[in-house]
Amino acid sequence: MRYLAVFVVSLVMSLSVIAKPLPEYSKVYDEARDPFADATAAIALAKATQRNVLIEVGGNWCTWCKKMDAFLVKNPEIYKLLHDNYVLLKVNVSDGNRNKAFMRGLPPVQGYPHMYISTAEGKMLLSKDTAELQDEQGYSTTLWREFLTQWQSKATGQKQAESTE
User: Fold this and answer.
1) Predicted pLDDT at 154
2) Cα separation of 115 and 109, whole Å?
3) Could you give the domains of the chain?
4) Residue-level pLDDT at 7
5) Distance between CA atoms of 107 and 99, rounded to whole angstroms?
6) pLDDT tens per residue across span 141-151
């Protein structure tokens, strides 16, 4: 019985962390959103919480974007690692709104989804093709864990990796 109680408490704590409210710009690709305003808000939140910003570029039309979202939902450890260590900023690129002005300020994208890591000061650390996070079965928990751990902020604000790959 005692083990069951510990398990239930651990489960509830895990779910409460996963269920913490995310900013709207972290939830969906939205053609109507202003990525400059969202980036300003994401950077402010990253500074306040000593995290990096993970910019995810894609759209609701993107099959692999949907697969990546489903992967994160099915893997709460990775989801928690992502949101505990990064402020997620989803930027829409679609036929309805390519967000050209915002995208001009980023390194080129070869495919979608594509991710960038920025410090809370706005310094670009990494441009990453998400195909690098896949194995034969799709997105890999091991590759995601290694990626998120490598680029997370330390409590001091220093980065574990200072150059782009």
Assistant:
1) 53
2) 9
3) 23-151 (3.40.30.10)
4) 40
5) 14
6) 999 999 999 99
DSSP string covering 27-79 = T---TTS-HHHHHHHHHHHHHHHT-EEEEEEE-TT-HHHHHHHHHHHH-HHHH
Phi first, then psi, for residue 119 (nearest 5°) are -75, 170
> Which pair of structure tokens corresponds to residue 104?
């001009």
Q: Which residues 6+ apart lie within 8 Å of 153 measured at CB?
A: 50, 51, 52, 85, 119, 120, 159
Q: What is the DSSP letter of 165?
A: -
Measured distance CA(110)–CA(129) in Å, rounded? 8
Digit-coded pLDDT (tens) for 88-115? 999 999 999 999 999 999 999 989 999 9
The amino acid present at 154, given as its one-letter code, is K
Q: Any idea which residue has 């398990």 for tokens?
A: 7
- pTM (2 decimals)? 0.81
